[in-house]
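Z., the sequence and structure:
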Amino acid sequence: MNSFATCDIKFLDKQLFICDSYRMKILLTNEQIQCLVKELRTDLLNYYKGLGTVEVVILMDGASVFASDLFSVQTEPRFNTHFLKVESYCGIRSYEPSVKQMGFTASEITNKRVLIVDDILDSGKTLRFVVNHLLDMNPEGLDSCVLLQKMGNLKTCISNHPKFIGAKFYSNKFVVGYGMDLDGEYRNLKDIFIL
């Protein structure tokens, strides 16, 4: 599997929080997140340089904050953003993914270069589902980018996906903040926490 801008994360023992009934430990500060985003943006610009417009499919709602920061700078090549709402969690339990809302048509993807942007690769079920869903639309090329990859939890391998990974970490715990939520809570936290 190819990956760019990958680093291993060490837990910060000095910052432990209790919020509601959850013990929350900082995984990444916003400063660390912004460094990863900047590295990923550079990798994307270098990879797609000279290839024209890229159609970006942002998986909602979790990847919205990450994508907003990732594509906040006007660049060449141009990145056209589209949204796909896929549900695969209820609380901390995962289930088979399904499309809830699609903010584009197949004709906007067919014969185009497409980049999937997601917040975290956990079991791989959601990414596999989205890759297969978009491949049915016959893109010219299909890559994916995730901010985080949870190591040791991958249940489904997807050939060449994700191509771009911000950071890998080892944990079987649930992650919240920076767009990622638990039943709609904690999405607005600027740092990323492990519950």
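Residues 45 and 195 are 34 Å apart (CA to CA). The beta strands are 16-19, 22-28, 54-60, 79-90, 93-102, 113-121, 141-151, 164-170, 175-176, 192-194.

Let me know what you think.
H.
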